[in-house]
Amino acid sequence: MTAPLGPRLSACGPLVDAAAAARAQERLSEAAADGGWTSTLQAAWPALAPVFAASPYLFGLARRWPERLRGMLEEGPEQRLSGILAAAEALTGGADDIRAPLRRLKGELHLLTALCDLGGVWDLDGVTSALSRFADASTQAALGAVAHDQRERGKLISASDDPRGPIPGLFGLAMGKHGAFELNYSSDIDISLFWEPEALESALAEGVEPQKFLDRIAHSLSTLMQERTGDGYVFRVDLRLRPDPSSTPPVVAVPFALSYYEGVGQNWERAAFIKARAMLGDIDAGRAFLQALQPFIWRRSLDFPAILDIQSIKRQIHVHKTGEGLDAAGANLKLGRGGIREIEFFVQTQQLILGGRDPALRSPRTVEALALLRDAGHVSAEACAELTDAYATLRGLEHRVQMLDDEQTHALPVDPLRRAAVAALAGEADLAAFDARVEALLVGVNRRYGELFEGEEALSSPYGSLVFTGVENDPETLLTLERMGFAEPAGVADTIRSWHHGRIPATRSARGRELFTRLAPRLLTALADTGAADAAFRRFAVFFAGLSAGVQVQALFLAQPRLFEQVLGVMAFAPRLARTLGRYPAALDSMLDARFARVIDEDSGVVEQLMADAATATDFESALNVARRMHREQMFRIGVQTLSGRADPEAAGRAYTAVADAVIAALAPAAVSEAVRQGGALPGGAVAVIALGKAGSREMTASSDLDLMTVYDAPADAVSDGKGWAAGVFYSRFTQRLIAALSAHTAEGGLYEVDMRLRPGAAKGPVSLRLDAVQDYYADEADTWEFMALTRARVVWTDDPAFGARTQAAIEAILRRPRPGVNVAADARRMRDLMARERPGQGEWDLKLAPGGQVDAEFVAQVRQLTAAPSGGLLTVSTLEALSDEPALASAWRLQQALNQILSAAFDDKPDPDQEPEGFRLRLAEAAGVADFETLKTYLAEIRTASRAAFENALPALRDGD
């Protein structure tokens, strides 16, 4: 028999609230007087007073069960603990029978351990051992109770005293601190539940489906333990330390679990199993399972990348620089910087690296393992002593924080009064001195933590820690993600963790996960730096999940950080380009081509390659796919260069048009071949494809469609040598096949929207016209707007160069032919006014139709040419060349083309730049040559006003009768 507890208690610290202590003494004195133990209470009161003054929870336990308090004070604590454990183990019956007594025993245990801890009777090991042993006993009793209920229902047919446990084949592993007998005062308990199919199935009644049965068992067990009643609760139960908890049932079959850990188990899971202990149910099966996992937990040989990945468990936590302070108020003693977790990671990372070859280092207990590492020469004596003392102090403070209200918290209160209560329970009367002591402690642990693997690559971020181990979100990491600008940090953390779990092809292999461990902090930091973290992360997630394999891409991103930043810039600011990468991750390959970064006006050889590949395509569909792949890569390349500012707007327009020209040049011969295949060859025929609009003027953007017409010539009596098609039918079929080739979507995507409405007689005429019919139409029927459109006409492909030259000459002749009696300027102004009424500009960012926008400038450019052409004036497809004498219009057109190039490269629709991220708005300002976005808006308004005035001067408003 040991001495009674009462005389052994010492006062933990000062009396933080004398009034609360007096109220507590009054209430307990009444009970003591009624029970005849007043002298016991009075003798112990100097030690009890500071406890009950600081902790409403502990006083509540004593007030509710004063006789139990008497028993504790008058009995030795070891005997009292043995009695509590024996009572828990002796509980029988079903869940309803043990629910209340189990909770009362937990309350008694809590009061006993608190008094022994605060009164200096038990050290840290004594306290955590008592809590852990009761967790074992209560969980075992709870499983026996739910198994009893299933036997009563006829579902479970094994004997209640089966040596394999209450439910044969079912076992639970105590994980984390519970497994190492290190539970804290208000801890939940981490239990991993598994089952052996062969043993369990024979214990179930016929027709009972094992997995559904076990799911109900897990639910009933958790409810019995953690449901709050009038008597409180026993323990909160966390079943998530199992393989891939978001996609697996709460009880996992052993064969699946072993396959999971062997295939995609992570290093943090290896670390978790260091403390695992077979505790519940079929203990022998649990021990056999842990034995089977030993090669997973303790690897005898580790290559360098694997070692780096283990070190990443530590390196994800941000280490403060010398001189940086850590505040006591609100400090998370477990997960915060300088906290308990850093000491545990300090130990476990070294155990994982060294324990495979040295079994002596495999202790599950933190302090013991630290000493073993010291004895083996891996940790200095000074570091071991400092961290051992810090661990005991931090764990003691953690218990005292939780004793205030039995809350599962690890943070020192921000409120000074509540923090003073913690300080009093820790023996400190001066709050400032207490805070200083805590802050020095945290800084010291964080400094020692920073010395581990010193000099290795940091896996935190300048924004803070980025820890994605475990099954729940790390509070410090959520704060870091919030500082980074993520609106939903928990969702981002969940996604990153799922990638670490290997749920996408890019991280399915061990090497892929090792690389992602290094890439993740760079990814998140770079996304934060874009100023559009959420949008960029969402688009990157689509791209990353679409990779068929991720080792090469991740290694590339790590080796070429500038390329990585460029890709993330695309994700942040350019949904159009991001979607290209998301749908076709292979587009990233184009960025590796040396030609990707070449100035886009240079001849990169892509056109010749496209022509050659299309010419050797085995069929029409193959030619289409060749063109689409090249088009996608080149559009992506031009878009990236436009967004980055490497390509000016004129160069981008030429480059986009060159791609369109190349695609037409590659697909037109294939379309001719298709017409020949279907109808036979047409002797003596020739055809040309004419581009109009932005394609004709070489001013295309990423969103431009293709305005086309086709013209042909052939002998009047020519027919195809297969089906006898006349020339008009043959070339109409060719045109239809070309349109389909340019606009149809295949497995490789699409190309362009094709618009044939600018051809003569578009409303009712054939899709392809003889050249002489075109000439006749413009001589007799064409309206002024059709002549305006023809100023940008350009032959882009022909199967007969002589015919192509004749067609281009015919276009010039049409434009230079005098049109007596026609007022071109008045016709143009009338048409522009009609457009303004029927299609008015949609706000300040309608760069095309707003007053002073691009259409105004283009109308003037086209009218100027039509007016001067009959007398030999300049004819050019270029808008800027045509506006050489109109500086206000030219400047406005150039500015709005620059903005349009960026907006079109980035978006499919018409965005509102005011709502886009600051980084994107700055890029628009840079394109305009101004300092910031607000200046750009002012400049745009001013230059449009000048442009509209120049338009009014060039094309005056019509008077009545005009």
Main sheet characteristics:
5 strands, mixed
| Global shape | elongated
N- to C-terminal distance: 119 Å
Class per helix and strand makeup: mainly alpha
Question: What is the strand content?
Answer: under 5%
Calculate the mean pLDDT score and round it. Answer: 91
Q: Please identify the oligomeric state.
A: single chain
User: Which stretches are poorly predicted, pLDDT < 50 over at least 5 residues?
Assistant: 320-324
Helix fraction by DSSP (H/I, runs of at least 4) = 55-70%
Total helical segments? 41
Q: What is the total tally of β strands?
A: 10
Radius of gyration, Cα only, in angstroms?
A: 40 Å
Short description:
By secondary structure, the chain is mainly α.
Structure, explained:
By secondary structure, the chain is mainly alpha-helical. Helices cover 59% and strands 5% of the residues. It has 41 helices and ten strands. Strands 1, 2, 3, 4 and 5 form a five-stranded mixed sheet that branches. Strands 6, 7, 8, 9 and 10 form a five-stranded mixed sheet that branches. Strand 7, helix 32 (727-743) and strand 8 (754-755) form a beta-alpha-beta unit. Helix 23 crosses helix 25 and helix 30 crosses helix 32 (727-743). The N and C termini lie far apart (119 Å). The model is unreliable at 320-324 (pLDDT under 50).
